[in-house]
């Protein structure tokens, strides 16, 4: 972890402690939620900066909708999306690709 990240976690913990003192049990729950959210943000940012594909997949799963279904025509092998028949040859036989 970088120095800024450590300071951010310490700052979040301090805010959580003050909330816990002021609000009692509700403050403790809110503090735990705050520390968890900041921790998840740091983990996600760390995965992205590593250069591995795992972080990219994680970000895509969280922030992007699923990709549209693509089909391959069984007659001419043309790849297309969303239509019942192939736009190239007109055949209605299709195979789901991904």
Q: Could you outline the blueprint of secondary structure elements for this entry?
A:
Elements: H1 3-23, H2 25-49, H3 53-63, E1 70-73, E2 79-81, E3 94-96
Antiparallel strand pairs: 1-2, 1-3
Q: Can you give a write-up of this model?
A:
- The two termini are 37 Å apart.
- 5% of the residues are buried.
- Helix 1 packs antiparallel against helix 2 and helix 2 (25-49) packs across helix 3.
- The protein has helices at residues 3-23, 25-49, 53-63, and strands spanning 70-73, 79-81, 94-96.
- The protein contains three helices and three strands.
- Strand 1 (70-73) and strand 2 form a beta hairpin.
- The chain has a three-stranded antiparallel beta sheet, with no helix packed on it.
- The protein is mainly alpha-helical and 98 residues long.
- It has two domains: 3-63; 67-98, no CATH class.
- It is rod-shaped and about 70 Å long.
- The mean pLDDT is 71.
- Helices cover 58% and strands 10% of the residues.
Overall number of structural domains: 2
Euclidean distance between termini CA atoms: 37 Å
H-E order:
HHHEEE
| Strand coverage percent | 5-15%
Q: Which stretches are poorly predicted, pLDDT < 50 over at least 5 residues?
A: none
Q: Which structural class is indicated by helix and strand composition?
A: mainly alpha
Mean pLDDT: 71
């Amino acid at each position: 972890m970088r120095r800024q990240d450590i300071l951010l976690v310490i700052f979040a913990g301090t805010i959580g402690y003050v909330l816990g003192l002021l609000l009692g049990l509700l403050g403790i729950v809110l503090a735990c939620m705050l520390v968890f959210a900041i921790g998840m943000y740091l983990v996600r940012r760390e995965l992205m900066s590593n250069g591995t594909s795992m972080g990219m997949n994680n970000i895509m799963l969280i922030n992007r909708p699923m990709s549209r279904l693509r089909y391959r025509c069984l007659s001419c092998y043309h790849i297309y999306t969303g239509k019942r028949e192939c736009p190239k040859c007109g055949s209605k036989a299709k195979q789901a690709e991904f």
